[in-house]
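Q: Here's a chain of 194 amino acids. Please give me its 3D structure as tokens.
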Amino acid sequence: MGWPTVFVRLTGCPLRCGYCDTAYAFQGGERIDVETIVRKVGGYGVRHVTVTGGEPLAQPACLTLLKRLADEGHEVSLETSGALDVSAVDPRVIRVMDLKTPASGEMGRNLYRNIDCLTCRDQVKFVIADAGDYRWSREIVGRYRLADRCEVLFSPVAGRLPPRELAEWILRDRLPVRFQMQLHKLLWDDEPGR
């Protein structure tokens, strides 16, 4: 958070989270070949690139795109739902895996074996809508010893959980997690293209 970053948003997602803020990425978009994307990203002159969706791993060429971006010297992160296998992702790519909480309605889609693929470079994110989500997330962090494996992020669902409330829960329980908010929403009100 805070680094100038190019976001590459891929169309399509097999999940339908109740708090999804990118439903516009479920369909549509424009077909662009991998080399064109790599060239366009390079034109921004920034080091950091995030490949996101929808669910980017639902796109057949996603693994190739990630590799090519890393080959070009970018610091690449992949934002994935955790519902699809991450084992074939290029090891140079930071995997940001979003474990789905109960309020998402998609908790049953979590592919927990993905946790075994994570390294200290990766992150597990929990998008938290209410106290029930918080308690579940806290339990999963402990059960899988996630903070010993990678960075753990807790993020409030915009408009459903006041950020201060989530921050106070984290402090009260002394959780080894990083509080996160979507900076682009704070700065640009989620304006498209920003």
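Q: Can you summarize the key feature?
A: Helices lie at 34-42, 62-71, 131-143, 146-149, 163-173, 183-188.
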